[in-house]
Amino acid sequence: MVNTRNAMNVITELRGEGIRISVDDFGTGYSSLAYLRDLPVHDLKIDKSFVVNVAHRTKDFSIVRSIIDLAHNLDLRVVAEGIESSEVCSLLRDLGCDEGQGFYLGHPVPPADLAA
């Protein structure tokens, strides 16, 4: 993030309006531990590349478990992206993951199709 001070100001303003802020795709790309230290965020979203095989790859399991523990120690909620099976959903629940997203839980729908 090029201008961290500006980002902090914007995020603080958004939080003041009651908007929840998440670090998306954590563990890949531009996500950084410095964001968790410096930015006033609410949630950490674990990238689906770690979630998809969490039940079958020891390294993915260790990474996901560590991210969940780290986030909770920083008083952040954890969202797992890419949940595509009951096995993965159950495992994440057992690890203490707070929320999930993925085709196992529901496919995307247009806003007009959502129940009020």
From TrEMBL:
CDD domains linked to this entry:
EAL
Span of domain EAL: 1-116
One Pfam family name from the record? EAL
Q: Any stretches that span the bilayer, and where are they?
A: none
Q: Which PROSITE patterns match?
A: EAL
GO molecular function, a single term: cyclic-guanylate-specific phosphodiesterase activity
| Top-level taxon | Bacteria
Name used for this protein in its record: PAS/PAC sensor-containing diguanylate cyclase/phosphodiesterase
Q: Which organism is it from?
A: Candidatus Protofrankia californiensis
